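Archive transcription. Copying these from loose printouts into the bound notebook so they stop getting lost. Printout 1 of 2:
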Amino acid sequence: MKLDIDVIKAPIDKHLDEFDRQFKIAMKSSVPLLDIITRYIVKRKGKQVRPMFVFFSAALCGGITESTYRAATLIELLHTATLVHDDVVDDSLERRGFFSINALWKNKIAVLVGDFLLSRGLLVAVDTGEFELLKIVSNSVREMSEGELLQIEKARNLDIEEDIYFEIIRKKTATLIASCCACGAASAGADKETIEKMYRFGEATGIAFQLKDDLFDYEKSAAIGKPQGIDIKEKKMTLPLIYMLRNLKYGERKRVINIVKNHSNNPEKVAEVIRKVNDSGGIAYSHLKMIDYQQEALEMLMAFPESNTRDSLENLCKYMVERKK
């Protein structure tokens, strides 16, 4: 069965509409330039996957409340702040098919906009006394920063082993989805055990999500008919590449590392690495790991009573690894 994101989120459409309204209010500023930029950010929003995890988790753990809207707004503000800062760090000129903030308004303004969004998120929690939500999300922001720095540190020598790779993606990606689920549960008044259970569900889902992203780089793109190799060009060590390097003889391993380090802008050499990764079984291995984490998440979800909400979360979890982009 093909999973459609619009069908999955249909049961919470009205809640997402109200979230959109509150999110726009939280972004408003009396500074005209800042207001123009935040309106631009709102226009290029994505699929709303993170707010969906917040609202479905709340519905599963007691019911959606006013606190749930604040949780979704807090997470989206802090997440958007990290994306704006990431684009500056990566010198990226595009985000979701639109020009990035730094591409249009330069780095200085982009950094300040990220700081503004971070402060707005903190104030959403502090002004309403949502200290439990603030604690959960602040921990995620810390872990995301640590994960990014760990990846930068290891990328210098391309010496990332599998356990370090999983630590990086747990911190960089999975912790934010985990905080969505934990905040949703906390906003519904769930006990600590349930909040922790939802956090672990989100973490496993987030790891599966990142593994899917990493696989896209080695699989044929529907748009261009060939693998993209973007991660190789950016010298990122993902699981398919790590698996392949682990199974190469010393001389060949050294040659591939040299390509990634020094020839990552050469399309022919990048294509060669992609072929080697495919031939090594790195794609199949990464796919199995992805399914393992998805199954781990779904097993945790099955501990909750059967309901339409549980079905929606199950489908959202499945969508994270079955999506085409």
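Printout 2 of 2:
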Amino acid sequence: MDGKIIESSMEAADEGSLSGKLQEMGLLPIHIGASGRDSMLRREMEWPWKKGKVKTKDLLIFTQELRTLTHAGFPLDRCLTIVAQLAENPTMTEIVRDVLKEVKTGKSFSEGLAKYPDIFPKVYVSMVKAGEAGGALDEVLGRLSEFISSKEELRSSIVSSLIYPTLLSLVGISSVIVLTVFVVPRFVTIFSDMGMDLPLPMMVLNGVSQALSGFWWLIIAAIITAGYAAKRYRDSEEGRMKWDMKMLEIPLLGGVLRKVEVARFSRTLGMLLRGGAPLLQSMTIVREIIGNQSIAKMIEPIRSGIKKGEGIAQPMRQSGVFPPLAMHLIEVGEESGRLDDMLIQVADTYDVEVRNGIKNLISFFEPAIILFMGLVIGTIVVSMLLAVFSLNEVPM
């Protein structure tokens, strides 16, 4: 309790029991993690091009540690000093020390965080500002920890679901390239040496093989050029709007994307309102964090409706973006004065639906990818077998 940092290791069944032991010893647990060999196995691989970047995990740990220290009654400058020493990411350490320097010069904590918009988003800074104004910084930091943790959990769930289909596609494409570039030319050489004409399927495969081996650089350049042009178009305001509208119209995928944005909108707005931020200011912040611009465009009419005194539920219903279940919960929340709680409940509900939707997408695409790659590879193999059979028919 005198503020000294103690690092050590203990055996325990889980983090909760270990935390209890430390508190019984008069120690305040700031960060608990696996030690020794386990930590080496669990440590994430640091890619060279990602060095110096602050990940969501670093922001989450920073928020959790700072919340623990402020809740224990430590002054903010002392809390930031301790957190800077505990940070594993050197970049995060430098940022925290710079924020501490700003605080010591008389600026508020939220103003120090606002210097790094790439690390601390507007929703984070706004909630901290509201917590400072209300004298409940530790409570706001606790809510931010829950907010970041739920977002990271959803992101991890989506990434882990996409790993298998991606690997499956890469293996299938690699197999096709190997067969057409390395195996097919050997068959062509055999037929050429024997003075025989190639069967029609093998002629087609030979044309594909020659195109891949002779013009691979042109194919790669065309792909890069098309990707760059698509990115330029998507980065433009008109292109981004049309792209996002088309994405929402895609069967199966469009519904999942809409639910992702509804969950993001609801959780962010709910956390801002719960942290004490004004509704109109919260709506402005939420508009900036919505990924799909066709949905983000609908936020302004909702904000205008709030200004006119129509409340939030009616303008949201008129926008046609939010599903009936979300609208029902938001209306109940507005009538009962518990809008923030109902928005968080909407976010939790649609987070579950997003996970289920992704599982359904994966369950559809996995067999579709297997079937497609099986047909392509099977066609190539059958063409080779036909060529082999035609060789056996040659009179000796």
